[in-house]
UniProtKB/TrEMBL annotation:
Keywords: Cell membrane, Hydrolase, Membrane, Protease, Transmembrane, Transmembrane helix. The keyword Hydrolase applies. This is Protease PrsW. It is found in: Cell membrane. It is an enzyme of class 3 (hydrolase). The keyword Ligase does not apply. It comes from Exiguobacterium marinum. Its EC number is 3.4.-.-. It is a multi-pass membrane protein.
Length: 218
């Protein structure tokens, strides 16, 4: 049980540490980062209940609807909602990279608890490895895209557009990832290649956010 708990929690904490350290300005208050992480974890149970209700009622159960609506849109909207009302509207959110950091923290809180519950049921080291490579890292990468848009929204005259793009972009890339897994359940290579592409995009967005900070706060 201890091994499963560690293998469930370690990927999320490792990824959060990485993105926390990529912030080139002063370090964000750790308490707020932890708050976002916990807020994401709190979302797991209500989202699981809603998804269970969709399945039981036979609503939106096709591959497309399951990938983009009952999973991606539902999860990304609630994460966006939580980030907006717990962090975005407060003064601690004050630079371009903050969006990435707090979105990643919230998303990894969700992914970590979800991963723990999954591994508690299946209790497999092989599954733990694949979940670290795919779903957990995937949630972090979806959050980078959402967070970049949130950071832009905070400093843009078109704030509402960027806030909308935060939800839309995360939903599209998350839904595409889930659709790949649904259509190719026995082949991990397409999903792994997709994650590699998302990592390249995420690193470019991290660099762009830090560059915007250097330009604005130099």
């Amino acid at each position: 049980m201890i091994a499963i708990a560690l293998s469930a929690v370690a990927p999320g904490l490792a990824l959060l540490s990485y993105f926390y350290l990529r912030h080139e300005l002063e370090a964000e208050p750790l308490g707020y980062v932890i708050r976002s992480f916990v807020a994401g974890a709190v979302l797991v149970f209500p989202i699981m209940f809603i998804q269970y209700a969709f399945v039981e009622e036979g609503v939106l159960t096709g591959p497309f609807w399951q990938a983009y609506i009952t999973t991606a849109l539902l999860e990304e909207f609630f994460k966006w909602f939580m980030i907006y009302y717990t962090i975005y509207i407060h003064k601690v959110f004050d630079d371009y990279y903050d969006g990435i950091l707090y979105a990643v923290a919230c998303s990894l809180g969700f992914a970590t608890l979800e991963n723990f519950l999954y591994l508690w049921v299946y209790d497999s080291l092989e599954i733990a490895i694949w979940r670290a490579v795919l779903p957990v890292s995937g949630h972090a990468l979806f959050a980078v895209v959402m967070g970049y848009c949130l950071g832009r929204a905070k400093h843009s005259t078109r704030e509402r557009l960027w806030l909308f793009m935060a939800v839309l972009s995360a939903t599209v890339i998350h839904g595409t990832f889930d659709l790949i897994l649904i259509l190719e359940p026995n082949h991990k290579l397409p999903a792994v290649l997709y994650i590699v592409i998302l990592w390249m995009v995420a690193l470019l967005l991290v660099r762009a956010a830090n560059l915007s900070n250097r330009r604005q706060f130099k």
